[in-house]
Write a structure and sequence with these properties.
This protein is an alpha/beta fold. The protein has a single domain (7-85), classed as Rhodanese-like domain (Oxidized Rhodanese, domain 1), CATH 3.40.250. Helices cover 37% and strands 16% of the residues. The protein has four helices and four strands, in the order βαβαβαβα. The chain has helices at 15-20, 30-35, 54-67, 78-85, and strands at residues 7-11, 26-27, 45-49, 72-74. The protein has a four-stranded parallel beta sheet, covered by helices on one side. Strand 1, helix 1 and strand 2 form a beta-alpha-beta unit.
Length: 93
């Protein structure tokens, strides 16, 4: 799923969610990502994903508004959307 080195997909769900089902992306829980936002590489593009995209969207908006980060994208639909469009075999619950 990640082929471009300048793009990093981050799963921001909680550990129990990630451990149950994930796509193999890097895992950094939402609060940890926010706490370390000042240390992020500003030349890197980050794609945030969660279960449905709502938490990722909220975090992306916060980072854009409060940290001025314009290198944050959101995976629309999160892992639920990924399942619907790409891999119906995923078990999310």
């Amino acid at each position: 799923m990640q082929n471009d080195a300048s793009i990093q997909v981050i799963d921001i769900r909680e550990a129990f969610e990630y451990e149950f089902c994930n796509l193999g992306n890097d895992h950094v829980p939402m609060q940890t990502f926010l706490d370390n936002a000042d240390d992020l590489d500003k030349t890197q593009t980050y794609v945030l994903m969660c279960r449905t995209g709502q938490r990722a969207e909220a975090l992306a908006n916060l980072l854009k508004c409060e940290k001025g980060m314009d290198n944050i994208l959101v995976m629309t639909g999160g892992i639920t959307g990924w399942k619907e469009k790409n891999d119906p075999s995923l078990i999310l619950e």
